[in-house]
């Protein structure tokens, strides 16, 4: 009799079910409706960012600058509207900054061949510094009333679901369509699986890398606008948090191989559920920030170790700059 093969996805799903059931039964306050709504809302922001990170990791890269792309362009949008700019012009400037940021990231990686880890780390620091020094007046930019036509992105409910969760579902559907149905999505998976073969067969590898990082930046902006609408402000100091590690954890633990070419939106969904539930449980247990970081650090190391065993790097296709 053939034994059923356990995949990383099924293991993570089982871990999520066990963790959720355990917290539901034994952790006072976890099962309260308000807490569950907070959980799914926080999970939504993490999940949206995870989608952008997934596209880049599938293409054999990594984007450490996603929190800067979340905080600064969306903060600039709020700031410009506060300063009296019209909504269309403010949206156009924020969108332009985001596209330029993604373009610079992608160009440095694709054409200057700087490793993605160092490129996105440096560009993220630059954008965060530029925002705090020149673009934004305050570290917390309040949501202006003139932006209320966009407030539905993060406020209210649809069929009982908070709008951030609905936006996560919309973004997940769009990313799934991109990766599974569009030629560009197939190109990115092929390039992540074997960049030399992809180049030899004539795929536009360098433009595809540009596209990956521009999409990641756009998804970061989308997550920022949804977050700002939800909490009525954009706390730009979020760049200094450890949120980017949570995003990496979602992607790696969900089963998207760091060696590229493997995984999809479903991996992001199950990784988001597990990490979101774990973070919520640790918050209710009132674990200190340091202890939470220790637990997340150990979990990330274990996830990377498992990924290296399940998805070993192909020495024939490995190249300088791979993560």
From TrEMBL:
How does the UniProt record describe the way this protein sits in the membrane?
Multi-pass membrane protein
Entries under InterPro entries matching the protein = ABC_transp_permease (IPR001851)
Q: Which Pfam families match?
A: BPD_transp_2 (PF02653)
Q: Does the keyword Nucleotide-binding apply?
A: no
**Cellular component GO terms, alphabetically?**
plasma membrane
Q: Name one GO molecular function term.
A: transmembrane transporter activity
Question: What's in the keyword line of the UniProt record?
Answer: Cell inner membrane, Cell membrane, Membrane, Transmembrane, Transmembrane helix, Transport
Annotated compartments: Cell membrane
Where would you find the membrane-spanning parts of this chain?
A: 41-59, 64-81, 87-110, 117-138, 158-179, 209-232, 238-258, 265-285, 291-310
User: Its domain of life?
Assistant: Bacteria
> What PANTHER family does the database record attribute to this sequence?
ABC TRANSPORTER PERMEASE PROTEIN YPHD-RELATED (PTHR32196:SF21), ABC TRANSPORTER PERMEASE PROTEIN YPHD-RELATED-RELATED (PTHR32196)
- Can you name this protein? Inner-membrane translocator
Taxonomy, top ranks, is: Bacteria, Pseudomonadati, Pseudomonadota, Betaproteobacteria, Burkholderiales
